[in-house]
Amino acid sequence: MSNSFELCVGPIHPALKEPIKLDFTVEGERVKGVSFSLGQVHRAIEWAATKRNPIQVLYMAERICGICNMCHPMAFSMAVENAANIEVPERAEYIRTINVELERIHSHILWAGVAAHELGFDSVMHYTWRVREKVLDIIEYLNGNRITKGILMVGGVRRDIQEKDYGKVREALDYYKELYAKLEGIMLNDASVRARTKDIGILTKKNALELCAVGPTARASGVKKDVRVDWPYAAYPDLDIKPVLPETAGFKATGDTYTRIIVRLLEIKQSIDLIEQCLDKMKPGPILAEPVLQKLLVQLKNVQGEGVAFQEAPRGELIHYIKMTGQESPYAWKVRAPTYANLPPLVPMLSECEIADIPIIVASIDPCMSCTNRAIITDKGNSVLSMDDLRELSIRKTLAMQKEASK
Amino acid sequence: MGIDSLKRSLWVFHVNSGSCNGCDIEIIAALTPRYDAERFGIKLVGTPRHADVLLITGPVTKQMKEEVLRVYAQTPDPKVVMVIGNCGSTGGVFYESYNIDGPVDKLFPVDVYVTGCPPRPEAIIEGVVKAWKKLESLEAGK
After folding, report:
1. Model confidence band, residue A14 (pLDDT cutoffs 50, 70, 90)
2. Chain A interface residues facing chain B, Cβ-Cβ under 8 Å?
3. Which of the residue ranges A138-152, A348-362, B97-111 would you say has the lowest mean pLDDT?
4. Residue A373: what pLDDT?
5. How confident is the model at residue B1 (pLDDT cuts 50, 70, 90)?
């Protein structure tokens, strides 16, 4: 008689805020196999794009994902600009860069909170979400809204950053610089976090390369890969930037959950530095290639050709492809979000892990299902383990380890 | 407007029916220290069976329709349904999509709509206050 059971997680569960369905095969506490099914957040965005003009699609691109809502419209407009041969003014490139880097800070801090929540450290989650508000404040100050910003336009941006506002941005960056040591202390030096994440969910460099992992997930496994460096876009060619690898901070790139935390923390530091560089190097100038909307629409209507844009979103490499055939609407639009590339690496990460480690491993790739699509765990035919039960298990494991350590 | 009696804390269950995350992170933001709705005892619970209020985000995709209906059936009466965000209220930018069975009020009655894309945490808290009043009137009528 086989001892294996099937365990199904999702699509509605309170820990991940989005739907995904994961099927695990478990033997006792050990995960032997995993598969996932996607599609719960399919909203037919790419299809709807073929019925709207590129400027309208821009706002839909912003609503692909509520967290990366700067990267998507930016990648989309880069693809359109590529197809239409529009040159973006230099200042607009800088403003775009500042905004995506602010978004990276917000996304990585948010992720640190979610990861802490999965481990059962709700106080850390509340702490990180409180400090995250500062970057949201600055985003709101610069763009007029906390989440969806609506400042992008094909050929530039719609809002300038006034010179008098630089001080405010710098002040927020200083706040994070001061805070950084504390965040590092909480996430890297805490004995329980270390025990729960070290050597858990290992993705070897070989696997990362073979399964095409992207972004921080790949970099934590020692794969030197960052679109901002490999295929520089926007203002990145002017900036001093190197891919963040665990080695830069003196850690080994083991590819476990702990190194993924390290990489994300270091990237917060890197983003702060990049924004400062942008503020220093930014020169006054126009912010739109074509300020008259009607003219721009006519210009886009006559475009025939294809455009591709690559971008380093907070979660990894993001690709937008667009084909225009001289119609008002694009003929085709394709989005390849980073989580889509990072889901196959989840399979080796999750195999042979304990059930209690599932939440933190899944969270460690920072999955974004609205960009991609979600995970389910069921006991064959009988009970369904909700993400809550799993988190309960996870919290119990932390407590047990703390007890063990204090002995 | 005030709440007449604070007999008990509101427990909330959050369903993502295919949302973009924007509203979802604003819901969490409303619960975390800056806005701190938890100080009123409002908290997210892990199962609809413990919930008084159902928070629904997203335009309800075809794959999620059955799940959302099941969660609604699992929530005990009296319950209040709150829709957060434009796409749950009207379909938003996805209104014409072939893969959407929403907005939410096509599936079951909705008591509070919080519009915005995404609504600010303040708006969500105001919505919760309205839901609270509605719940009290429901309980009084019982």
Report:
1. low
2. 11-12, 14, 17-19, 39-45, 47-48, 51, 59-60, 63-67, 69, 110, 113, 125-127, 129-130, 133, 136, 146-148, 368, 370, 386-388, 391
3. A348-362
4. 41
5. very low
Residues B26/A147, Cβ–Cβ less than 8 Å: yes
pLDDT in tens, A335-348: 888 888 888 888 88
Q: pLDDT band for position A356 (50/70/90)?
A: confident
Task: Test B21 with A39 for CB contact under 8 angstroms.
Answer: no
List the single best residue of B14, B15, B16 to mutate versus A (max A Cβ within 10 A). B16
Q: Which CATH class name applies to A45-336?
A: mainly alpha
Instruction: Tell the residue number behind the tokens 């909705």, with chain if given.
Output: B110
Q: At what angle do helices A293-301 and A54-62 cross, to 10 degrees?
A: 100
Chain A positions in Cβ-Cβ contact with residue B16 (cut-off 8 Å) = 12, 17-19
A390 closest CA partner among A22, A123, A18: A22
CB atoms within 10 A of CB A132: 22
Domains of chain B with CATH codes: 11-137 (3.40.50.12280)
DSSP A74: H
Has residue A374 got a pLDDT over 60?
A: no
- Asked if CATH classification 2.60.40 holds for the domain at A4-41+341-406, the reply, yes or no, is no
| Chain B residues lying within 8 Å of A133, measured CB to CB | 29, 34
- In the predicted model, is pLDDT for residue A376 greater than 60? no
E-assigned strands of A221-367? 304-313, 316-325, 332-336
Cβ <8 Å between A12 and B15: yes
Instruction: Answer yes or no: do B100 and A43 touch at CB < 8 A.
Output: yes
* Nearest CB partner across the interface for A41, out of B18, B45, B71: B18
Over the stretch A169-194, which tens digit does the pLDDT of each residue have?
Answer: 999 999 999 988 888 888 888 888 88
B54 touching A, CB under 8 A?
no
Q: Which residues of B touch A125 (CB under 8 A)?
A: 32
- For A143, residues 6+ apart whose C-beta sits below 8 A from its C-beta are A99, A149, A150, A151, A159
The pLDDT of residue A194: 86
Reading phi first (left if > 0) and then psi (alpha if -120 to 50, else beta), residue A155 is in left
Chain A residue numbers touching B115 (CB-CB < 8 A): none
Q: What is the pLDDT of residue B42?
A: 86
For range B34-40, the mean pLDDT: 86
Burial letters A252-262, b for 16+ CB under 10 A, else e? ebbbbbbbbbb
Which of A77, A243, A237 lies closest to A154, judged by CA?
A: A77
pLDDT, chain A, mean: 84
Which value does ipTM take for this structure? 0.87
Domain residue ranges of chain A, discontinuous segments joined by +: 4-41+341-406, 45-336
* Mean pLDDT in residue range A43-56: 86
Angle between helices A90-119 and A257-281 (to 10 degrees): 150
Kind plus residue range of the DSSP H or E element containing A157: strand A156-157
